[in-house]
Amino acid sequence: MGKIYCSIIVLIQLYCTGCLNEQNSSSNYIEPSLVKVEGGIVIFDDSLLITKIQLENYYIGRYEVTNKEFVLFLNDISSEIEISNDDEVLYQNTVIFELICTLGEFEHPYVEEYILFDKNIRRFKVRNGCDNYPVGLVTYHGAKYYCHWLSLKTGKNYKLPSESEWIFAAKGGNESKGFIYSGSNLYDDVSWCGRDYNVEGYPMKVGEKEPNELGIYDMSGNVSEWCDYNYETEDTDLKILKGGNILEDCKKATISSKRFQKYDFPGTIIGFRIVLYDNSP
What is the mean pLDDT of the chain? Predict the structure, then answer.
């Protein structure tokens, strides 16, 4: 199962033919659209242990972090990054992002790769028309560094959601109607999953399906989302992914479903959304 590499020649051709967006130089960060989640109790029941967690008020991203948002981060730190021979993007000797794609048995040239790199000017570009698609190919540390970077830019306290914060928001918080998917019992209403809509398995534009009870989009399906600390994965290399994705069976897009993934794996359909505490948006 080999990796499909993006040719620098292709990148230059795309750049020269106008297929890549120039980023807006007037601002080097974008504050996300946020939804307030009133505090409440989350109950974990893993058949071995029932745990209740009390959450305070917090804000969570209305959408998954997009290519347009993430590319500003990459370009802001571009002088400090290295590109490996395998097209991995390294920051502080840690893989944070990848410029290639492997889709297992569905391996293909991935002509719709959304973020590309021009080595001649050391700039990342978003393919034309792909600004508002969720970023993929991000490692756990890439998501964490993005949150830290945005916090420094804004003076606010952005972070990845814990699993409990993610679940509570996905359920609709205190407005929850008890749906199995985030916003409905019918996956087709709220989720891109199971490759039903896109045989190549590309992520879809954010906010195209119906939101959940709190007005949050795509917490079921589209891209899987990194979560922060969980008691099951503390002090290990495994981190939690929630929400399922467009490649997986829709049963994995339910709110209760999760999977574990090594922190340095930049999957094509792995992205994230962010949480804010302390400061009102």
Answer: 83
